[in-house]
Amino acid sequence: MRFRPRFLLLCGTAAAAALTAGVALIGTAEAATTLGASAAQSGRYFGTAVAAGKLGDSTYTGILTREFNMITPENEMKWDATEPSQGRFTFTNGDRIVAQAQSNGSRVRGHNLLWHAQQPSWVAGLSGSALRSAMINHVTQVASHYKGKIYAWDVVNEAFADGGSGGRRDSNLQRTGNDWIEAAFRAAHTADPGAKLCYNDYNTDGVNAKSTGVYNMVADFKARGVPIDCVGFQSHLGTSIPGDYQANLQRFANLGVDVQITELDVAQGGNQANIYATVTKACMAVSRCTGITVWGIRDSDSWRTGENPLLFDASGNKKAAYTSVLNALNAGGGTSGSSPTTPASGGCNASVSLNSWNGGYTASVHVTAGAAAVNGWTVTVTLPSGGAVTGVWNATNSGSTFRNVGYNAQIPAGGSTDFGFQGTGTGPTATPTCRVG
Ligand code: XIL
Questions:
Q1: Which of 67, 158, 182, 307 is catalytic?
Q2: CA atoms of 44 and 59, how far apart (whole Å)
Q3: CB of 73 within 8 A of CB of 97?
Q4: Average pLDDT of span 59-66
Q5: Could you give the angle at which helices 272-285 and 320-330 cross, rounded to 10 degrees?
Q6: CA of 74 to the centre of ligand 1 (A)
Q7: 160-184 pLDDT tens trace
Q8: C-alpha angle 301/302/304, rounded to 5°?
Q9: Is any atom of ligand 1 closer than 6 Å to the C-beta of 301?
Q10: Could you confirm whether 74 is annotated as catalytic?
Q11: Mutate to test the pocket of ligand 1, among 80, 303, 304, 307 (most ligand atoms within 8 A of CB)
Q12: 346-390 pLDDT, tens per residue?
């Protein structure tokens, strides 16, 4: 049971009747009914790729605004779209998507700064240091334009080779020198220090030579202080899923990066709904899996024409896969940043759920006592740098450390209490810790 209690607010005569009758208002457990709201219960997001050209389609935008709270531009922020001739930048369609997201309180995953595909034709005329300069200028200009508006950037997309080598893919970018990826991450960090910076790839969805190549790069980047925050797993899946999908996410998370499912779509074969559920449960079980993005809304919007790989049919109806994802999100798995654990006897634990918008959030923190009653508790959250806590209720704080107030110091064995806070920037992502006293 991971459903967060929602307290029923009864108004007008119903409330009056209830109160006169002496009926206590009690908390009820309610499952959220949209993908975004269900994911938010555990501090995660649920997103989709969006095409600017479809924003005039009311069925499309209706589902988009109802179900999703993260948007990835499907093509509009790629190099060919944003710098069609060298040094001339066009952000119109990317800006439209950002505006759409902001108007709906959604966040944006920027996709992508560098990739061997969808490059503008002028890039083919460059190599060596001229190409390296053009690449870095591109990263700098695009990340600067969107500074403060992007939750996470796919800084580099698909740089590793398929097959058993575990090495880099040959490309014009790779031929500028093996350090091109870290140079891109450093430039992106300088341009937008608030954005999470991700490496994103496909066929890395289980433990295999390619994903291990990426893993080794991420470990090396972390060891040398290259600014990488997250790894995206595209998860363009067929009719099966690697058995070690969750274990693979977890091994990356253990390196100290967030993991995200960035382009999920699953061929409509026998097992589509099950595979979607397996992916969702895996993300829910990995505390640093911060969210899932599907690569389009309706089957008719998919780049995989004829495979019907998405959650809504061409008419916009929910498919069985939709229900399996929603149920998996509602079944919980703990806050992003924590897995469901039973507090040790005499201890306490805490989970946080976030309501985020561009530039801010409110966090609701649920504090649970273990097998022994608690008298006084302290919860510490990890806040991304650059943000500030601007208000606290039912607790006092010093920075990211929150203490009980008088009336909620005591929690009976197995009982719980709630406090909350509001902040700027993005909210806590790591596991909150709770200690007694
Ligand atoms: C795809 C888009 O969906 C198509 O519209 C476009 O024609 C080609 O690119 N990996 C990625 C995405 O990182 O950017 C790709 O998107 C799908 C594969």
A1: 158
A2: 25
A3: yes
A4: 98
A5: 20
A6: 6
A7: 999 999 999 999 999 999 999 999 9
A8: 150
A9: no
A10: no
A11: 303
A12: 788 888 887 777 788 888 888 888 888 888 999 999 888 888 898
